[in-house]
Write the C-alpha cells for this entry.
Amino acid sequence: MPRDPLAGASDLCRMSAAELAAGYAKGTFSPVDVAKATLERAEAIQPELNAFARIDHEGALAQARESERRWREKAPLSEVDGVPATIKDIVWMKDQAVRYGTVSVPAVEATEDAPSVARMRAAGLVFLGLTTTPEFGWKALTDSPGFGVTRNPHRPDVTPGGSSGGAAVAAAVGAGVFHLGTDGGGSIRIPSTFTGIVGLKPSFGRVAAYPASPFGTVAHIGPMTRTVADARAMLAAMAGPDPRDWYQQPGAFPSLTAAAEKIAGLKVGYWSKPPSGSVHPEVAARIDQVVQALAAAGAEVKPFDLPDEDLHAVFQTLWFSGAAARREMVPAEGRAKHDPGFQAIAEAGLKIPAAEFIRASSVRAAFGAAMDAALTRFDVLVSPGAAIPAFTAGLEVPEGSGLGRWTEWAGFSYPINLTQQPAAVIPAGKTGDGLPIGLQIVGARGQDGRVLAVAEAFEAAGIARG
C-alpha cells in the first residue's frame, strides 16, 4: 500500500530553505535544532530505505554550530546558511571516504571538495552525509553488490530509480532540504519522477565538475529538492565556474533570475514518443491531461517529435564506452567484485570501434543542433519525466517487459543528456496504485532560469499535480 514519504517527519524536516532561514533569523529555532531533527530522520528511514552510504553526525553538528553562531551574530554566509544538505557518494567531499557505490576499489579519501561541494560549503550548508548510488552511477536504479538495495519511500518493494536514488529518497522523506545528484542519462530526473520530488539537470557546464566523469560530457550535476523554489536556491548556491573543469566554456551563463512566466501564450512542444521503449498507459494518459490543462490555461501546445535518428544506439555507444574507460581504472583483481550489469556494459564498450564512437559523436552533434533550433520555435518542451512508473526494487528492467537494459525504458532522459539542455522534473500526479508520475520541462541551453520559472508557474497553478 502506498504511503506518505513524510509520515513521521517532524515539522523542522518539512520546511523549505526559505522557511528555515526565516526561523534562523528570528531565533525561533537554530541550525543545530534542524541538524539534529534531520539526522534523526535520516537514521529512522535508513534501515528500511537505505538512502545513505554514510550519515555524518559529528561533521553535521559541528557545521550546524558554526552556522548557529553566524546567525546569532547576524552574519550568515548566505540566505541558505544552515540548510541541511546531502551529497551523492560519487562526488568528492573533503575529508570524506567517497565509495562510488563500489567495493571493487578502495574508497577515495577526498583531499578537496568538488567545485559544487566547495560552493555549497562556502554558502554555509550543513552536510548530513553521502547518499547511495549504484556502482560508478552506471544505471538509472540504485542498488549494488556492496551497498545493497535502496527502496522507494512511497512503496519499499519498488525502486526509487537512480543513479541518484539515495538523494531522491532523502529529499522525499525530509532527511535534508538540498540534495546533490548527478545525471548522465536521467540519474536526477528518473529518481525525482519515481519518488515524486523536483529534480533539475542544469545546462552542461553551469555547475562545474571535478574530477571529470569517465562518462564524459553527457554527465551533469544538479539539485534535487521537494519544491522548485528550493531547486532554484540550491542551484544558485552550487553553480559557477571553476578552473579545474576544462569542459566548462568561457563566458558567463544567463542569470538564474528570470521573470515570472505566465502559462497563457507560452509556446509548448509536447514530446510524447521516446526513441526507445514504450510509454506506460497511465503515464501517457496523465501527461495528456496535463498538456490539455496547459492548453486550457492558454498555452500554445503543438506536438513535437525528435529527429529520426537511432538515439538509443548513439547513447549506448557513448555510455558503454564510458563504462569501459571506468572499468579500465580498476585493477584486475577487483573486477570480480563488479556489479554484473556494469561488467557487461563495460565489456560491450571495449568492443566498440573507434570509428563507431566518432560516428556516434557526430550524430550527437547534429541532433544537438536540431534541438537547439527547436528551442527557438518553442519556449519549452514537455514530456513524461519517465515513460514508466517505478517497478520492483533490485531489477534493471520491469518484470515481463522483455527489455534488456535500463537505457531502453529511459527514452525521455538520455536524449537531453546528448543535447546538454536544462531539464526539470516536477510531480504530475500518481498512477492508480499510488506511484508518482513526473512531468519533464526542457529548455534551451543556458536558460535554466526560464525552465525553473515555467516549473514554478506550473507548480503554482496546480496543473501538474492534478
